[in-house]
Amino acid sequence: MTQPDPDIHLYDTMQRQKVPFVPTTPGRVGMYLCGPTVYSDAHLGHAKKEVAFDVIRRAFEHFGYAVRYVANITDVGHLQNDADDGEDKIAKRAVLEQLEPMEVADKYFWSFTDDMAALNVKRPSINPRATGHIPEQIRLIEELIARGHAYESGGSVYFDVRSWPEYGKLSGRKLDDQEEGVREAVREDKRDPRDFALWKNAEAGHIMRWESPWGVGFPGWHIECSAMSLKYLGEGFDIHGGGLDLQFPHHEAEIAQAEAAGHPFARYWMHNNMLTIGGEKMSKSKGNFTTIRDLLAQHDPMVVRFLLVSSHYRSVTEFSEEAFTSARSGYRRLTEALGETERRLPTAPAGSDAALDARIAAHVLAFEDALRDDFNTPKAVAALFGLTTDVNAALGQGAVGRDTLERARAAYLGLGGGVLGLFAGSTESRQDDTEVVSALMELVLKARQNYRLQKQYAAADELRDTLAAVGVTVEDTKEGARWRR
Fold first, then answer.
1. Residue 195: phi, psi to the nearest 5?
2. Which residues of 176-191 are buried (b: 16+ CB within 10 A; e: fewer)?
3. Does residue 249 have a cis bond before it (omega within 30 degrees)?
4. H or E stretch including 454?
5. d(CA 54, CA 272)
């Protein structure tokens, strides 16, 4: 068995610097990602987060690690404006659509699942739902009360931030400075406006409710992630990920809940940056969002994914038609080189090209070094373009040995496909398409040659120009006409 790569470095939000990754258990990685609140269709901002951590997961697997990847589904407790008051997002949607809350949650969970499948995001190892883990959340709340870090008031339970001086260590916010950012006056049942809900009393008419030691109610938004990550990954698990907008208060609250209850929590914190339109964050609350479903009706899913992996997960990604035009062109360049490599394989001569083999190996190393350095996907993509330049140059000069073509193909599929998640679709399907295109092109070249033999040069040139308009170049050589994309 291949030993896992020991030289991976990642940016830890808690330490505010790149640090070497050392797993809790040798050879294994436990990852927890804050998943969606399933009350409406996902938008491109969600896609950035999911694709970013999918690549990180794939990279660990490429480097020899066994990964347990847990991504939760929030189907209760997430209130409007992320506060402790207001309507539950799913309950509000249920009323709007005249559905049961679980119907809403299931409807948008499967919509989200379909979107992720289209973007070639691997399914999580475990996809726990908040509503399926009410007992675990209640137990954790009871531990916090027993340790003096939470209190019951009017059927609700709140975390006492004053009892935990480390609250704010992830975001760097000092407790005394947080009062300015409080969006609500002190509730009658709260000791401090910064205290946050662990359990909420269900008022009359609230349609999501469970029995608890404090009366009928429902869990707060933050408690689910602490409870479920500890359940499935254990104390001191490796990596907790999510969007930068979740750093405060959600992730800050998760840490406080777990550690105040006596449970060592995530050892590394990773956050992806936002996606913007015209310089503004894409979000449902701003109304400047495009759903993934609508986007995929206009763009190839792999072009969307290519756009997302072309920027670093910690960088802002700007959404624009210009960005998609560039992504479409870049992705086509890679797929055409891969397609031409596969087209040449069946008739390639035996053997290899030592010089090209060395170049392929160098590009593979550059790709892997980029991933070792905080999963730098832009540099990884650049390595694939470098590979493409060398492969295209070699193919343009004539026949390339079969062994070398196999190495090039393996690099495209193993790195661009296996790690970046591009080139989705079965190898067999792609090979079938290549064979069909090759057969059709042979017929076209024969037709063009017949025109030339009959001195119908205008018709022959029209065929060549038509092919050129769709990106196919015809070259006349001593051995006859050849074509390439």
1. -60, 140
2. eebeeeeeeeebebbe
3. yes
4. none
5. 12
Measured distance CA(19)–CA(9) in Å, rounded: 5
Which pTM was predicted? 0.85
Q: How far is CA 349 from the centre of its chain?
A: 40
- Rounded-to-integer distance, Cα 258 and Cα 428, Å: 48
3-state secondary structure at position 322: helix
Output the pLDDT for position 110: 94
Give the residue carrying structure tokens 């499948």: 117
Instruction: State pLDDT tens for residues 389-414.
Output: 999 999 999 889 999 999 999 999 99
Residue 158 vs residues 95, 96, 191: alpha-carbon distances, Å: 27, 30, 9
* Contact of 86 with 154, CB cutoff 8 Å: no
Question: Cα(first)–Cα(last) distance of the chain, in Å?
Answer: 40
pLDDT for residue 104 is more than 90: no
For residues 417 and 452, which has the higher predicted lDDT (pLDDT)?
A: 417
Who contacts 243 (Cβ-Cβ below 8 Å, separation ≥6)? 34, 45, 49, 271, 272, 274
What is the rounded CA–CA span in Å between residue 227 and residue 258?
8
Distance CA 134, CA 371 (A): 38
43: its two tokens: 């938008």
List of residues 6+ apart from 482 with CB closer than 8 A:
474, 475
Rounded to the nearest 5°, which phi and psi values hold at 121? -85, 125
Cβ(211)–Cβ(124) under 8 Å? no
Give kind and range of the element (H or E) at residue 269. Answer: strand 268-272
* E-strand stretches of 5-145: 9-12, 17-20, 28-33, 66-71
